[in-house]
Amino acid sequence: MDDLRLGVVESRFADIIWSHEPLSSRELVALCEKELDWKKSTTYTVLKRLCDKGLFRNEGGMVSSRMTKEEYTSAQSERFVEDTFGGSLPAFMAAFTKRRQLTDSEIEEIQRMIQQMGRE
Fold first, then answer.
1. 64, 57 in Cβ contact below 8 A?
2. How does pLDDT run across 40-99, given as a tens digit for each residue?
3. Which residue of 54, 103, 106, 120 pairs with 1 in a disulfide if CB–CB is 3.0 to 4.6 A?
4. Rounded CA gap, 11 and 21, in Å?
């Protein structure tokens, strides 16, 4: 599960699964034909690749996720901060706020999140 990066088309495919799961592989083929104009073989090839990455599973003809969309997004965000800012969240925040000022409500929300994490 080291390389969870998805291209644009893989992301659209993943969104189809996340939006309809659990679904049969037959349903997935039909959805991909309709929404992506894919052939059955393309659907199975991409599904296998994303199953090998650990994102989805195809067991007994049923397709479901091993990782929710939210978990995937979180993992991508963590990887970005790690790769770009050496894992430093303060360095990320400094870079982010250099070009875009946070609103008062955003600051309050971040403060609430920090306080909540301190209680857990």
1. yes
2. 999 999 999 999 999 999 999 999 999 999 999 998 899 899 999 999 988 998 898 888
3. 54
4. 15
Give how far the C-alpha of residue 115 lies from the chain's centroid of Cα atoms, to the nearest Å: 26
Give residue-wise pLDDT tens across range 18-44.
999 999 999 999 999 999 999 999 999
Q: How far is CA 61 from the centre of its chain?
A: 23
∠101-104-105 over CA atoms, to 5°? 115
Question: At 10, is the secondary structure helix, strand, or coil?
Answer: helix
Give me Rg for the CA atoms of the chain: 18
User: Tokens 């965000």 correspond to what residue?
Assistant: 77
Q: Which domains does the chain have, with CATH numbers?
A: 8-69 (1.10.10.10), 88-120 (no CATH)
Rounded to two decimals, the pTM is 0.76
